[in-house]
């Protein structure tokens, strides 16, 4: 995704962090529920709150801590890393786009093949010379600015 040294970079954007709102809220709920359970195990070990007769092995508490770590990694950290890999670079000669995911490879469009770009229903639509249908890019911030820079790179 590194442009050539003689290319001028016009736009370089990554996926916006607003896409992580629901995974963040989900992580808060997971943390709250599991740490309430872990606190209940701690209270049971101390013999408080009427749970003294129910003695559970300490491995159960450690298992819930491990479960919490795995859920936070699975539901927050991995999606964060995956989404932050989405990137678009617009240079004076080409458009380079890499989608979400760890295995995504960059796709390149030559600026000479692009006729027009615009925002359509929250997506960036790039119209090409050889096609009647546009190429759509989703999940990008500042779509109007990107379309303006594609249409008139001299701005």
UniProtKB/TrEMBL annotation:
Domain of life: Bacteria
Chain segments annotated as transmembrane: 21-43, 63-81
Record key words, sorted: Membrane, Transmembrane, Transmembrane helix
Protein name, entry field: PH domain-containing protein
